[in-house]
Sequence to fold (253 residues):
Amino acid sequence: MKLHLRPIFAPFLLSAAVLLSACAAQSPESRAAGEIFDPHENTNRSIHNFNRGVDRYAFRPASKGYVSVVPPDLVQAFNNFAVNISMPGQAVNLLLQGKPKQSGIALSRFVVNTIFGIGGLGDPSSDFNIAYIDTDFGETLHVWGVEEGAYVELPFYGPSTARDSVGVVVDFFTNPITFARQNPADNIGVYSEIVRRMGDRGTYSDTIDAILYESADSYAQARQIFLQNRRFQLGEAGAITEVDPFELDTEGF
Fold:
């Protein structure tokens, strides 16, 4: 891979150090109660509005056009490819989490799908009953005891937390396929992830549109849904009763 990506992402590395410090500064009492810790809400709302604009005028129409033109089986194949090339990075994270067996499973899925799934476009691992793996460096930090930190919304990315924002950066730079000098296709991990997200955006367009464009407060809706799902995924789900994600403002429709 060409080195021109390094200068582009250098500011994110600096931000990662700041965000990781914010994780440790979070009040444990608020997390124990399952509350939302959002001290930068004004800034987050500005970024959310920016992201909504990007979605409305660029990503949404492109994604809907993509799934309307590309057959569903091919959309799924591209999704499989994006997931498959993330497996080596996930294997590293599982080792860091003290789970060598699961790390081996992740590598097994990568090898099987790459060899027998036409480079990962297919998913023969599931046919062979090799367990599906899904983890990231944000979860690794959770296992290490790092607090969730403040809620943040990242430009072009969406809802996250201080801890998971660090994970996004680390996962990108530590995946030997996504960011490797000998990568056979420059930025292949970035491109495949964009295509995967386009497929998801187009496939679940109605649900996402309801949250972003039909809710009374799309920022609060997205924040609640993300935190609830993420905490559940990490086994630390706490009740969040601030906003009902399905209480949509339908006036004018």
